[in-house]
Amino acid sequence: MRLDEAIRERSEGTAFVPYIMAGDGGLDNLIPTIERLEAMGATAIELGIPFSDPVADGPVIEAAGMRALAEGVTLAQVLDRLIEGTRRFSVPIVLMTYLNPVFRFGVQPFFERAAACGVSGVIIPDLPFEESLELFAETDRHGVAVIPLVTLTSSAQRVETILNQTEGFVYAVTLKGTTGKADVFPDELLGHLQALTARSPVPVLAGFGVHLAEQVRVLGEACDGVVVGSFIVEALHEGRDEEVAALIRAAKTVDTKR
């Protein structure tokens, strides 16, 4: 099933996509963590690849990446581990990585391997969407969607360009900054999400800063779902799985009738 279909065909509430850092706590924890999140009701999993020079990650996710790098975790190892686990889970996997690891792996080999591992999409935050179209124009991506980021400062023309060529889902960044846990979002955010969702041919998911059930409810009513990163990474690292489960349960109760 395509990523956009998996999000749209969720059984209840708004979509909930937890972000985890691959290799945080060791690669042996990767597949069991994906299985636990799937059992909690995650719509898809965003899987971060540890990178030494992240530009979009706040302190919690950056620290998780450093822990994974200290374990010696690489993109190739993560993909190898994923292919070992594909028979143990069915939730869609979206990789969040940076351009250098993809170049080092090789663009075409990366997409071939990712597809073989059951990866549905990839987010590359340091690669502008327009340049991804050019860079991957001759690449056979084997159905792996390249997920675009749209921010509050994206121009109307740029948003139009992205919506005309997007696939998988649109990642609507809710903050003017890096990932983290925000208590207050910009006043214009809900209107931005509603307008984006009304025009987008694929689902729109809001991410960056989300960590409270009330935020999941409010944002989930304005678009198709949420991505939660820093809160999930921190809670799993500290063994607070029940708080993760509670947040996912909150997403299931969101009234999505707009």
UniProtKB/TrEMBL annotation:
PANTHER family: TRYPTOPHAN SYNTHASE ALPHA CHAIN, CHLOROPLASTIC, TRYPTOPHAN SYNTHASE, ALPHA CHAIN. It catalyses: (1S,2R)-1-C-(indol-3-yl)glycerol 3-phosphate + L-serine = D-glyceraldehyde 3-phosphate + L-tryptophan + H2O. HAMAP family: Trp_synth_alpha (MF_00131). Tetramer of two alpha and two beta chains. Pfam families: Trp_syntA. GO terms for molecular function: tryptophan synthase activity. GO terms for cellular component: cytosol. The alpha subunit is responsible for the aldol cleavage of indoleglycerol phosphate to indole and glyceraldehyde 3-phosphate. Belongs to the TrpA family. Pathway: Amino-acid biosynthesis; L-tryptophan biosynthesis; L-tryptophan from chorismate: step 5/5. It comes from Exiguobacterium aurantiacum. The keyword Lyase applies. Keywords: Amino-acid biosynthesis, Aromatic amino acid biosynthesis, Lyase, Tryptophan biosynthesis. This is Tryptophan synthase alpha chain. Its EC number is 4.2.1.20. The active site is at E46, D57.
